[in-house]
Amino acid sequence: MINYHDSNLWLSxxxxxxxxxxxxxxxxxxxxxxxxEFKNNTITLCVKNIFxxxxxxxxxxxxxxxxxxxxxxxxxxxIKIIVSDKYIDEDKRNSKIDENTIKTKVDTINxxxxxxxxxxxxxxxxxxxxxxxxxxxxxNNPATVYxxxxxxGGVGLGKTHLLHAIGNCxxxxxxxxxxxYSSEKxxxxxxxxxxxxxxxxxxxxxxxxxxxxxxxxxxxxxKERTQEEFFHTFNSLYESQKQIVVTSDKFPKEIPGLEERxxxxxxxxxxxxxxxxxxxxxxxxxxxxxxxxKIKLTKEVTDFLVNSVISNIRELEGYIVRxxxxxxxxxxxxxxxxxxxxxxxxxxxxxxxxTIEDIQKKACQHFNIKISDLKSSKRAKKYVVPRQISxxxxxxxxxxxxxxxxxxxxxxDHSTVIHSIKKIEAEMETNQILKNIIRNIKSTLVV
Length: 447
Ligand SMILES: Nc1ncnc2c1ncn2[C@@H]1O[C@H](COP(=O)(O)OP(=O)(O)OP(=O)(O)O)[C@@H](O)[C@H]1O
Hints:
Elements: H1 8-20, H2 23-30, E1 34-39, E2 42-47, H3 50-59, H4 61-72, E3 78-83, H5 85-97, H6 99-107, H7 129-140, E4 149-153, H8 159-174, E5 178-182, H9 183-195, H10 199-207, E6 211-215, H11 224-239, E7 243-248, H12 260-266, E8 270-274, H13 279-292, H14 299-306, H15 313-330, H16 336-342, H17 356-367, H18 371-375, H19 381-397, H20 402-408, H21 414-428, H22 432-445
Parallel strand pairs: 2-3, 4-7, 4-8, 5-6, 6-7
Antiparallel strand pairs: 1-2
Bound molecules: adenosine-5'-triphosphate (ATP).
Residues 117, 122-123, 128, 153, 155-161, 216, 249, 285, 313-314, 317 line the site of adenosine-5'-triphosphate.
Region (Domain IV, binds dsDNA): 328-447
Region (Domain I, interacts with DnaA modulators): 1-100
Protein name: Chromosomal replication initiator protein DnaA
């Protein structure tokens, strides 16, 4: 039997892991793990925060066990991941050493980063964990793992939160200069710089930072000069190995009016999406927000909110605050009846029955087209695709027959409906964007 009483065991496991994971994943997730002890057949490892713990638990524990088996034939080993003060203390020590050098560096620039948005208070679930993990990876290893990182997803789902979390993390832990900018602010400053002849200043400002965080980049689409300047800023940062993170409400290919050269650059790194939250994630977010705002929500009220058709987390937050304010002003407890009454104009209770009309309405909202166009026989792609998707969803979410569906789409033949549905099914096998679109529309209909 091998006697493992020091970290050699871990080092040998690391050796195996290095060869069985990608370099990026190894550097991001495995290398920073600290070995604590090996006792009673349990290896205890320590990581920096709860987010990393959850990610490592979910994605790497089995791999670590396999590596332990491969290297030392230990098959019944346990892996315990803890968030330990040791890690934090060491981090603090390290940060003290170069505090002075760093202070000047970080404080010299107003980073526009909101301290409230951190990884610690970002609740991650199936819908957002890929984007959250990618953001954490970038924050741990700026400009090494995923550059640029492009995060996209619907309104109010946490993209901005993740941008700030990256900013806070690199400023605190890496002492880098991070800079948060909405693309509107970027555009406005550019216009002012052109008007007042301050372009050199503008360029220097953007090209002397370590991590550039640009929010809602879709707003620069169609703006020629802004895209041009952003393109040069991007290139200059990228070439000097600085990190760029961009968010958008759409996948790069779906942003109308975005120049090809920018689109292709956004696709160089990693593209991560955030989907509307599932019920468990919604519940966890609701509970966390209620606790933060010191608002008491009973299980019934939480269930009611979770089961209403809201996926926008910003709205969800707004409703909690509204309920909290009402309860405190009237000195009453928050009940389901009160929630229904207060939120009656804004909240739609989930109904178990989805109708063809509901699907058509939501699809038209998503694609920004008219119901009459959806039901028409127009052959332009911008109508055909929404029509086919709607038919597909009608078949999936209602009990209607093919002829009934055809009837609701301007009297189409049942063979047209079958053809449309088959087309979507085939396309979904390979087209991730289409899959996301369908998932998004579906989540507004059934939660
Ligand atoms: N997973 C989450 N955990 C905790 N809070 C969240 C989460 N997702 C979103 N939020 C909160 O919801 C609110 C809206 O999020 P955010 O502003 O990041 O959305 P967004 O995707 O950037 O929206 P927009 O497209 O409008 O810019 C914020 O207060 C944010 O803290």
